[in-house]
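Audit log entry. Action: structure prediction of a protein-small molecule complex. Ligand: 2-acetamido-2-deoxy-beta-D-glucopyranose. The ligand was supplied as SMILES and no pocket hint was given, so placement is left entirely to the predictor. Protonation state taken as written. Sequence taken verbatim from the request; no trimming, no tag removal. Recorded inputs:
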Amino acid sequence: MRSPSFPSWGPPPPPPLQLLLLLLPWPVWTQAPAAAASWGTPGALGCPEACVCAPGGQANCSGRALPAVPGGLNRRVRVLLLNHNRVHALPPGAFVDAGALLRLDLRENGLRWVHARAFWGLGALEQLDLSANQLEGLLPGTFAPLRALRALSLAENRLARLEPAALGALPLLRALSLQDNDLPALPSGLLAGLPALNTLRLRGNPWTCGCALRPLCAWLRGHPRHAPEAETLLCVSPGRLTLSPLTAFPDAAFSHCARPLAAQDLAVVYALGPVSFLASLAACLALGSAFTACGARHRRRRRRAAARRQQRRQPDPGPGTASPAATAAQA
Ligand SMILES: *[C@@H]1O[C@H](CO)[C@@H](O)[C@H](O)[C@H]1NC(C)=O
């Protein structure tokens, strides 16, 4: 029979041994090889260090001032509560041993930096909470391994700019929170890889009513029920439009904004780029050599003129050597 305080995934130890183990002080208990499969006490094998584990694969490591992701993660961990710690950075492969993780809570860690491969191996993860941290940006590809992700919170960070590829393609993502960040707009394409998205939280950002807001306004118009507080989202600048609701802008309001370049235009730009570079290089070379040649000719002319002046100035009254001009003047 399993004791509720010592749930285990392995075969439970036989009752007499279990009783003996219970009577022993816990440091000895953790050294007992029979406890290898236990999951319910700090330090027990199978439970990550510094955490308390509960049935269902929950590892509770919250509020322990941990400076890094704890060691000893394994495929038994389904829920990892790492909230309220001091994990300021996530290195590559930080959770690679916890491949069966379904839920990861990293709230309130002062997290500033997430490596683009930090979430490698988390193909089963369904919920990721990165809220209340200090993230200023996200590297494209960071969430790419999370093919099963359904809920992602990036609320209460310092995100001021997201690359179009910051979220990538998350086919099952239903809920995304970007609220309480420093976002003035969302780039075109950011939400394009999220076909299942049905709840987008956007409150608490300094939305700026300019051309950059066009993609978000278009998304809100196209998904009227998917941003629960859309009606309350207001622009905070520029002055004239301050406090205009985002949903009040029809696409016509952006008609003065340049449309995104079509494929043809892009092809021209890409072709023109190298050609104009080479042309300007050639022009520079030509101009440079022209200047050099001009300078050389100028110097030669000046030298010749100076030589002539010197010849003229040379007082040479000797009749045998008088220049023809001087002879003529004398005559
Ligand atoms: C996790 O542990 C902390 C303190 O150790 C406790 O306050 C919290 O309620 C626990 N969370 C869960 C979900 O058990």
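Audit: result stored. The two ends are 142 Å apart (CA to CA). The helical segments are 15-23, 26-31, 214-222, 263-313, 324-330.
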